[in-house]
Design a protein that fits this description.
Ankyrin_rpt-contain_sf; Serine Threonine Protein Phosphatase 5, Tetratricopeptide repeat; single chain; two-stranded antiparallel sheet; mainly alpha
Length: 177
């Protein structure tokens, strides 16, 4: 992708190509510009569900590239945080997050993905949930707890939860009646 000096546009590149270039190069400024449909992407906004040649979505690509600053920007957008890659093992963002080498980055990334709505119960093509591939060890106990707690919360059906603030005329009378 050639960048012109005069207009700062990526000549001949689609918005999605510029998006994936920004992700893999870790260029937060370029990512923000392309997300806004700026000059670098020819005034067009990218498809945040697009896939690169590896079958990765923008979220997966940012994790594979280890670009957590890029991931943080993407999570502020409406992106699917559960979409699996399509060309290899079917890993989802949480699967890649638990494989991060740095303990603090792993914990932060898992926490952010869960906060963004990622479902820890989803499996990859081998039938493994993220918690299943998390290595043993004291350094992973906090991440393991985050995943287990999120699994438990995800297992609740909202219809099974009683809203105590909601008043109803049905049911037995209380002592206050």
């Amino acid at each position: 992708m050639a960048e012109t000096e005069d207009t700062n546009e990526y000549v001949g590149a689609s918005a999605n190509q510029v998006l994936f270039h920004a992700i893999t190069s870790g260029n937060v400024d370029l990512l923000q510009e392309v997300l806004q449909g700026g000059k670098a992407s020819g005034g067009k906004k990218p498809d945040l569900e697009a896939r690169n040649a590896l079958g990765d979505t923008p979220v997966l690509a940012s994790l594979r590239a280890g670009q957590l600053d890029i991931l943080a920007v993407l999570l502020d957008e409406e992106v699917d945080v559960d979409e699996a890659e399509t060309k290899h093992d079917g890993d989802r963002p949480l699967h890649l997050a638990v494989r991060l080498e740095d303990d603090e980055q792993r914990e932060w990334t898992v926490s952010q993905l869960l906060e963004a709505g990622s479902d820890p119960r989803l499996t990859n093509n081998d039938g493994f949930k993220p918690v299943d591939i998390l290595t043993a060890g004291e350094q992973n106990e906090k991440v393991r707890r985050l995943l287990r707690d999120a699994e438990a919360i995800s297992g609740f059906n909202k219809a099974d939860v009683v809203d105590e603030d909601e008043e109803s005329d049905e049911g037995p009378p209380s002592d206050e009646d």
